[in-house]
Specification:
- The protein contains 10 helices and 13 strands.
- The protein is an alpha+beta fold.
- It has 2 domains: 137 residues, 60s Ribosomal Protein L30, Chain: A; 184 residues, Alpha-Beta Complex (Phosphoribosyl-aminoimidazole Synthetase, Chain A, domain 2).
- The strands form 2 sheets. Strands 8-10-7-11-9-12-13 form a 7-stranded mixed β-sheet, with helices on both faces.
- The chain is globular, with a radius of gyration of 20 Å.
- The termini are far apart.
């Protein structure tokens, strides 16, 4: 029998259905594993005894080489925070390209890593470094550990029918910053020096960290789930919530805040901001009666937040309401960033 050619995947996350098929092979029997691998779940949770759970997360930085030490710390810390926890301990595996690695490069990555850890009260506790063949730029794989009180744990799969979906800041903070840093000369010509500077600084302002807003939201018992959009942007993150919670979603397109600099970049490169890598925004799923209080609390701390939709029955699917009517929300298994 002739073997069929193997399907080749594009750059980005594995397709959800493929990942689900692979994860079904993993049958975790250890009762101390409270949250194991699953579609949309941001981190693993382990019961080590005592009043708190241990949260464990790992995530690489591959889309950019600029400030990857700083970047990796915050990306991994975000996923601890979305579980309702506080990030505490960080490890990093640093893979460096041969013939391109100098003392200056290594010093910069280490400095940025320490600076990011100190800014959020995290301890750097270990890791691994090596010069690796076949690379054309450094890659950092971060591992973050944190803790959460057992009665405060949140899961992506916790969203409930009737809940409201709140988005902080806007989209796509991370994608805008990365494109501006990777395509600096082009953005300079398109949008000018002042806009380029603002876009590059999106890493810090509005910022790709969601720790502050996640910790604030986790104080509300009515918050049932949180999730931070990463690869595949806001649209893919919403699909992950629906998949994990076995629910439907209705999103109002006009309510989704797209930052003007992001829209300008997306217009030039013909990208959809809904599918552009979007760390820095936080999705908060909560009961309707508490939405007003949460929005007020976040805004009092200088964090913009917007109600963008609601959780519906699974049978209704994941829908986007536009000026032209109701349609399926696209799923970006390949991030829009990879197109450029």
């Amino acid at each position: 029998m002739e073997n069929k050619p193997s399907l080749r995947f594009p750059v980005g996350k594995l397709p959800i259905k493929t990942l689900e098929r692979l994860l079904k092979r993993n049958k975790t029997k250890d009762p101390r594993v409270i949250v194991g691998p699953g579609i949309g779940e941001d981190a693993a949770v382990i019961d080590t005894g005592g009043p708190r759970y241990l949260i464990a997360k790992t995530d690489p930085i591959t889309f950019t080489a600029d400030q990857i030490g700083w970047y990796a710390v915050h990306i991994n810390a975000n996923d601890i925070a979305t579980m309702g926890g506080r990030p505490l301990w960080y490890l990093a595996t640093l893979l460096l390209p041969e013939d391109l690695t100098t003392d200056t490069v290594v010093e910069k990555i280490f400095h940025d890593t320490l600076d990011a850890c100190r800014s959020i009260g995290v301890s750097l506790i270990g890791g691994h470094t090596e010069i690796t063949g076949g690379l054309n730029r450094p890659i950092v794989v971060g591992q973050m550990l944190g803790e959460v009180d057992k009665n405060r744990l949140l899961r992506t799969g916790g969203a409930r029918k009737g809940d409201v979906i709140v988005l902080t800041k806007g989209v796509a903070i991370e994608g805008t910053a990365v494109i501006a840093r990777e395509r600096q000369e082009e953005i300079l010509q398109i949008l000018g020096e002042q806009t380029l500077t603002r876009c590059r600084n999106f890493m810090y302002q509005p910022g790709i960290s969601v720790l502050k807003e996640a910790l604030a939201a986790a104080e509300y018992a009515s918050v049932h789930a949180m999730h931070d959009p990463t690869e595949g942007g806001l649209a893919t993150a919403l699909h992950e919530i629906a998949w994990a919670a076995r629910v439907g979603l209705l999103i109002r397109a006009e309510a989704v805040p797209v930052l003007p600099e992001t829209q300008a970049i997306c217009n030039h490169y013909h990208l959809n901001p809904m599918g552009l890598i979007a760390s820095g925004a936080l999705l908060i799923i909560l009961a309707a009666p508490e939405v007003k209080n949460l929005l007020s609390r976040l805004r009092s701390e200088g964090i913009e937040a917007t109600e963008i939709g609601e959780v519906t029955d699974k049978s209704k699917g994941v829908k986007l309401l536009t000026a032209d009517g109701l349609c399926d929300l696209p799923l970006y298994e390949q991030d829009e960033f990879t197109r450029i």
